[in-house]
Structures are given as structure tokens and as C-alpha cells.
């Protein structure tokens, strides 16, 4: 089932998320729904806060690489980044919660992450390149951070009107979204 993606400005995107346990209600269905949602929005990663849940869960699927080889696909539960290594490099990032904005973000090329998979097996993995970048982006979400937080003050000011428009719902996304204004109207 495709779920609405929470838009910039919603307080859930700023929360440091909570760990979950194996008894989390309908976890397998939630993970499946998150993949459906991510694929429908043409994303490569999706974190639980982006669908309104302040829990430490995110998914990644980078798809096939340029040589047609299978990409990197994982479920990350209760993830912790243990180490980031290397010289930071810039890459243009976007976010499903912040449609139509793409900016260069500096990140280290190697990351060591500890996490549980969907079968509750514990992993410690060193990732590099695109998988490392996507994991760092999604990990930021469960820590209450957005890629726009890394931008210079000047760049943030230049984007302010676009970000305000997103939070008000004055944006066209090709996927279902939930805007902070809509949430407030329901209360």
C-alpha cells in the first residue's frame, strides 16, 4: 500500500526517533508499504518519519548500477552509525519530503553502520560510495535532521520561499503527500 509522504515543516521530521522491538505492530507490512511508497515516488531511500512515524526504521534500494548489476537493498532497524571515514565529497541530493529542491551536500564516502534487518539479525557493515551516502541521508532522518540543515545560511535564505511553499502544500509532487497544514486542520 502506498502511504502519503510527510512534507517539510511537519514536526515529525525533526524528532529524534525511538528504537523499536520485534513486537512492533505489523512491522513486515509496514516495511512492505514503505517499499511500495518509495518505489511509487521514484526514491532510493525512505525513513519512517517521512511517513509520520517517529521510529528508527529506514529502507534503501539504490536499484541497478550503470552496468546493470544488482544494487544495494536493505532494511535498517534501530541503526547506529559507528564511524564515518574519508574526505567529504559533494553530491546533489534531494528528498521525497522536500520535492523540487536538490542541493549539493558534503558527506564522507565511507560509513560503518550497525543495524537489525527485517529478520532481526544484527549486522555491522562498512559501506562506501552511493550506498554510504543514501544510508547517511536516511540516518539523518531518524536523528531529526534534513539535508537542508547542511546548507549555508545564505543558501537556506535563498530557498526559504520554496521551503515555505512546500510546508503550506503549494507544491506539485508526483506522489501522495501529507502537508503540515492538513495535519493541523484535522485536530
From TrEMBL:
Gene3D superfamilies: Peptide deformylase (3.90.45.10)
MF annotations from Gene Ontology: metal ion binding; peptide deformylase activity
Keywords of this entry: Hydrolase, Iron, Metal-binding, Protein biosynthesis
InterPro entries per record: Peptide_deformylase (IPR023635), Peptide_deformylase_sf (IPR036821)
Catalytic activities: N-terminal N-formyl-L-methionyl-[peptide] + H2O = N-terminal L-methionyl-[peptide] + formate
Cofactor(s), by name: Fe(2+)
Residues annotated as binding Fe cation: 95, 137, 141
CDD domains named among the record's database cross-references: Pep_deformylase (cd00487)
Enzyme active site: 138
Primary role: Removes the formyl group from the N-terminal Met of newly synthesized proteins. Requires at least a dipeptide for an efficient rate of reaction. N-terminal L-methionine is a prerequisite for activity but the enzyme has broad specificity at other positions.
The protein, known as: Peptide deformylase
Amino acid at each position: 500500500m502506498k502511504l502519503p509522504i510527510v512534507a517539510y515543516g511537519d514536526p515529525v521530521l525533526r524528532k529524534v526517533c525511538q528504537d523499536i522491538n520485534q513486537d512492533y505492530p505489523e512491522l513486515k507490512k509496514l516495511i512492505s508499504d514503505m517499499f511500495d511508497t518509495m518505489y511509487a515516488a521514484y526514491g532510493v531511500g525512505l525513513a519512517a518519519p517521512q511517513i509520520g512515524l517517529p521510529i528508527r526504521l529506514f529502507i534503501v534500494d539504490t536499484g541497478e548500477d550503470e552496468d546493470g548489476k544488482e544494487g544495494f537493498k536493505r532494511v535498517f532497524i534501530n541503526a547506529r552509525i559507528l564511524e564515518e571515514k574519508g574526505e567529504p565529497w559533494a553530491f546533489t541530493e534531494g528528498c521525497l519530503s522536500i520535492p523540487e529542491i536538490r542541493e549539493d551536500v558534503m558527506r564522507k564516502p565511507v560509513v560503518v553502520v550497525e543495524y537489525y534487518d527485517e529478520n532481526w539479525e544484527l549486522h555491522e557493515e562498512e559501506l562506501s560510495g552511493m550506498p554510504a551516502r543514501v544510508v547517511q541521508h536516511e540516518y539523518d532522518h531518524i536523528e531529526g535532521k534534513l539535508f537542508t540543515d547542511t546548507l549555508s545560511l545564505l543558501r537556506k535564505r535563498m530557498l526559504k520561499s520554496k521551503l515555505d511553499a512546500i510546508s503550506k502544500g503549494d507544491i506539485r509532487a508526483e506522489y501522495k503527500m501529507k502537508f503540515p497544514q492538513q495535519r493541523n486542520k484535522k485536530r
